[in-house]
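Hi Y.,

Following your request, here is the sequence exactly as I used it, all 141 residues.
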Amino acid sequence: MVVRYIDQSQADRLVIIGSSLGGFYTNYLAEKYQCKGVALNPAVYAARELEPHVGMMTAYDSEEPFDFKAEYIDELRALQVKCITNPERYFLIAAKGDELLDWKEMVTFYSGAKQLILEGSDHGIADYADHLPAVIEFIEH
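Below is the corresponding structure, written out as C-alpha cells. Let me know if you'd prefer a different format.
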C-alpha cells in the first residue's frame, strides 16, 4: 500500500521516518527509493525479533486478541535489508534505555550513518521533541 502510494505520488522529494517496526520499513523504503531515512530505535532484524511472538496475541491499545501469523514473519524476511548501501542517507536515533531492542545492534547496522545515541530515554523515545531540530536539519541538508 505504501509503495503504491509513493509510486503514484507527484512528490519531487521523499524522506522516510519510522520508529521500531516502522524503522525496519524505513530501511526497505529508503533502499528501494534511494532516499533519506530517519530510523528511531529501529527493529533492524524484525523477523528475528517478532518470530517468538507468532500465535495468538493481545493488542497493546485495545486488549483485543489477534492471530500473529507465521506468514507475517516470511513477509518481513522478504523485506530485510542486509546492509544499507549509502549510509550518508540515514540518520539513526537510538536510545540506550530502549527496553525492547539492542541499541548496539542498531549502531552496528547503521555504521557510517549519522547517529544520535541517547543516554537513557526509552523505546518510544519519549523525549523525541527535544531531538526534532536535529531530524529537521538532517532532512533539509
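The mean pLDDT is 95.

Thanks again,
Q.
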